[in-house]
Amino acid sequence: MTLREIFHNGRELRSGWRLLIFCALVFAIGYAINAMMERLPLPQYADLDPVGLIIEDVVLLANALIATAIMARFERRSLAIYAIPGLRELFGQLFWAGVLWGLVMASATIFLIFLGGGYHVHGLSVTGSELAKFASLWIVANLFIGFAEETMFRGYFLYALADGVGFWPAAMINAVGFGALHYYTKPYERWEDWVAVMLVTIFVTFAQRRTGSLAFSIGMHAAFDFSFLYVFSGMNGGNLAIGRLLNADFAGSTRLTGGMLGPEASWFCFFVTIVAIVLLHVTYRHAKWPAPKG
Q: Domain of 234?
């Protein structure tokens, strides 16, 4: 193999090198943005404060979009090639389909926990103007969570990885890596959360393949987290959401309720997500992403 062949596949720079450049851009841009943010007189926010999450995910989204735009310019491709939707598509039919799937999946998990005796509601956590305020903030926060995380981890990153090793190996690597990121960066982690995150990641990457766009995955991710954190008011990383909707108790074994990790780590969530993957296969029959190279 010649030196040129190490770097070039005859069509363009090899996918591994492009992925390395993208990761380097993400780290460099993230460092620059964080350095600027440190100069701003921002208050310290508690864990699971929606305002703090909005700020964090706006930064993550800006980083992902800037790095992706640079790679798109370098590769002379549109953002749509990486499954990133435009504004009109972002809030179009696929987005709302994803929202519906996310709400149903989270609700089904909570319903099964309830049937097992592990979920009890004791009224609203906030009322009046506070309820309206935090409901709005949590909608915005979860929209940014969905948009930022899906763009960063399932946009250019998954595209370049799939170009090198194929879609399904790339999807598995992405799922294991995203699960590991949660496992090693969040408190009180157990293997259940790693598995749950892996399964949900397989679901959203499969949805991306079958719908051809991240719009569905963004809507699903936002609705799924919004339901667990705000609507059903479960824990996440040992914390409860500031301004959550309900005073709710999750009683019983960690296998039933997820414990301090929240309902996402319940074994019922495994079951619901696996069923959702099967139903997704039946609902969206044909692969649309990534598009074959010309």
A: 3-283
- Residue ranges of the chain whose pLDDT lies below 50: none
Q: Which tokens in the block code for residue 251? A: 């009683």
Task: Indicate whether 248 belongs to any domain.
Answer: yes
Question: What pLDDT was estimated at residue 61?
Answer: 98
153, 177, 210 from 146: Cα distances, Å: 11, 17, 18
Question: pTM value?
Answer: 0.95
Identify the pLDDT of residue 178: 97
DSSP string, 157-170: HHHHHHHHH-HHHH
pLDDT for the residue 2:
76
Residue 294 lies in a domain: no
pLDDT attached to residue 10:
76
Quick one: angle between helices 267-283 and 191-211, nearest 10? 10
User: Which parts of the chain fold into alpha helices (H)?
Assistant: 3-7, 15-38, 50-75, 87-90, 93-115, 128-154, 156-165, 167-185, 191-211, 215-226, 254-257, 267-283
Q: Which two tokens stand for residue 244?
A: 């959550």
Number of domains composing the chain: 1
Compute the distance between CA of residue 72 and CA of residue 42 in angstroms, rounded to an integer.
Answer: 33
293 located within any domain? no
Q: What's the pLDDT at 12?
A: 87
Whether 226 is in a domain gets the answer yes
